[in-house]
User: Fold this.
Amino acid sequence: MSIGYLPRKAAWEILLKVNAGVFSDQALEKVLLNYKFKSIDIAFLTELSFGCIRYRKFLDLWIDHTSKFTHTKQPPKLRWLLHIGFYQILKMEKIPHSASISTTVEIAKKTELKGLSGVVNGILRNAIKKLEMDNLPYVSDNPLDRISYLDSVPEWLVKEMVHWYGETVASNIAKTFNKKPSIDLRINILKTDLNSCLDSFKLNDIKAEPIENLKNAITFKGKVGSIRELPGYKEGNWVIQNRSSQWVVPLLNPQKGEKILDACAAPGIKTTQIAELINDQGEIWAIDRSKKRLKYLEQNLKRLGLNSVKLLSTDSINLINKRPEFLNYFDKILIDAPCSGIGTLSRNPDARWSLNKKKIGELISIQAKLLASNLALLKKSGTLVYSTCTICPNENNLQVKKFIEQNKQISLIYEKQILQSFDSESDGFYAAVIRYK
Assistant:
């Protein structure tokens, strides 16, 4: 068995699970249970597998360019194995081509693809030969085609983004989908402070620094290994939360003693932020349809030492029917709505391939129902914040505009759309503050 064989085999197994419908993060978790890898191997196979998932369309382009059979005619297991080889050759500059080929061929030989090991070897060697001759796959000069193939984004999504923001911005956004996302955290201000956390990381040779324009946020600047093993995690001193997500809850301006609803709470990162900002003194209701995801929130509440949150597993669209006493009950309501997630595609490698316009249409309908049903739960003096992690206008500003037009008694106080950019570590996020007139 060659050095590096097992991590590459594990990466291939992750691709097989994702192809079978398992989410990429869950596939990674399941595959790792079968191995005992060092942190350096986990980092490598994560980059390899997630990179293959992100660059699926680009890698298929190379299969079509180097094989007698197009990617659509390849047996799926062979297709994903070729992706493992191609990604190393095309996107991992530090990996020698010889190692990329030999380990990929070895996987074929030691699995059910044994009879196709020669095919794997031939296709990958052909790719290297074409690279050396600068013989690259043909992509038309059409800007939309170039974005779609070279940045590996579904054609329909490229067209939508160009329609929303223009070609230049759309191209920039598409490039962010393939960036390695930052790892940011929010400090639990009830347990510690910014400088104490930074000192703790420094003592453990972990590179971290404050995030500009956020009071209690830190970002890591290098490899960190297992999140759960980092100093302060078990003590509940901080929680992982992207910087773009951290500015949403302060828009609620939550205060001690208030009754606050998090209508779509799980996994609950914003719920815990609300509890911290009110010094854990108030009545917070965290609602979500998923009992499993609420369980994760419950674990986080315990780790962070928060006691002001009550959990309820139900659909908040029907909350007024289940809890009629909640009519005009809440001072503040957060609707962190289910959305297309286009603003966070770099964090969810497989999401771009399962998303489509029909799904977005269904989500828009759910969002409208959430806004309409939860308004009845808000006090006349209260504040409602609607937020998403998408950049789709129909889910964001146009959704809110329609909601306000249908409800003349309310008004838009503030709204902000953050677009992800290749030069920034921010995800794409939207939030709107709504109040009664």
About this structure: DSSP finds 18 helices and eleven strands in the chain.
